[in-house]
Amino acid sequence: MASDEIIWQIINQQFCSFKLSTDKKQTFCRNEYNVTGLCNRQSCPLANSRYATIRRAPNKDTLYLYMKTIERAHMPSKLWERIKLPNNYQQALEKIDDKLIYWPKFLVHKCKQRLTRLTQVNIRMRRIAAEEERMGEKLVPKMAPKIRRREEARERKAEAAAKLEKTIERELVERLRSGAYGDQPLNVSESIWKRVLNAMEKEGEGKRDKDMDPGIESEEEADEEAEDESEDDLEKEVEYVSDIEESDEELEDIEDWLDDDEESEDSEDSDEETDRKAGDKRKRGRAVKMNQKRLKQKQAERPKIAEELTW
């Protein structure tokens, strides 16, 4: 028992991984064996060597009574004794009283409360499953009151905004039709302005400019456009073909002939380019030879000119 006090002092004053504090000065416990879900000395499953709780089997409706005693504290693998409780609520209560006859009344009372709550949860789950099987569809859970009120408030605001937009649009259309903004109003949606002009044209109150505004087409214009479209369709449907049908072999011969012509033209062009380059080289050689001859003649004439000047 002394070890229980030491464990509780460490958990309460220092640190515990299962402790969950809230803003309302209430501390909860996330340990799956806690019988109340609160973090206090009586409900702590770690700081009590003699403890009992009720747990539900995973994926089953079966409930089990878990008991921990100090005699098994040295065997962690066998620390908890699990006893299956009957499905009958009254029989389960009697079994709890029988197994916890010498236990503290606090634990007996909390185990019975937990048994009652888990039994209600099982009944509700079976009812929902039967309803889904009967209707052939999954039921949507009810929203919390706070969320439901919030969604209703959003719907009311959206409806009010939609009504306000329609009222503003109706008033704007009336002002445009009455001419309150003149012929060319500013800051008005183009779609609304076109709607007003079309309505005025239908009623005969306004006239449109054929060059600037298409407006509402008359029946004659619509008929003319329909005739033009039908003529275009007929032209597309009619095709002109030759009476001489060319076979595939003839087409291949023509393609080969065209390819041969292109190759011959390419070869002629390449021959002309080579001849032109060779002629350029010959001209360059002749020019170099002529320049050398002229230099030699000038060098030979220089001493003759010098002798004449001395005389």
Automatic annotation (TrEMBL):
GO BP: maturation of 5.8S rRNA from tricistronic rRNA transcript (SSU-rRNA, 5.8S rRNA, LSU-rRNA); maturation of LSU-rRNA from tricistronic rRNA transcript (SSU-rRNA, 5.8S rRNA, LSU-rRNA)
The entry's keywords: Coiled coil, Nucleus
Subcellular location: Nucleus
Presence of the UniProt keyword Transit peptide in the record: no
Ranges for region Disordered: 202-311
Pfam families reported in the protein's UniProt record: Mak16, Ribosomal_L28e
Biased composition (Basic residues): 279-297
A cellular component term, taken from the record's GO annotations: preribosome, large subunit precursor
Coiled-coil blocks: 147-174
Descriptive protein name: Protein MAK16
Provenance organism: Colletotrichum fructicola (strain Nara gc5)
Lineage: Eukaryota, Fungi, Dikarya, Ascomycota, Pezizomycotina
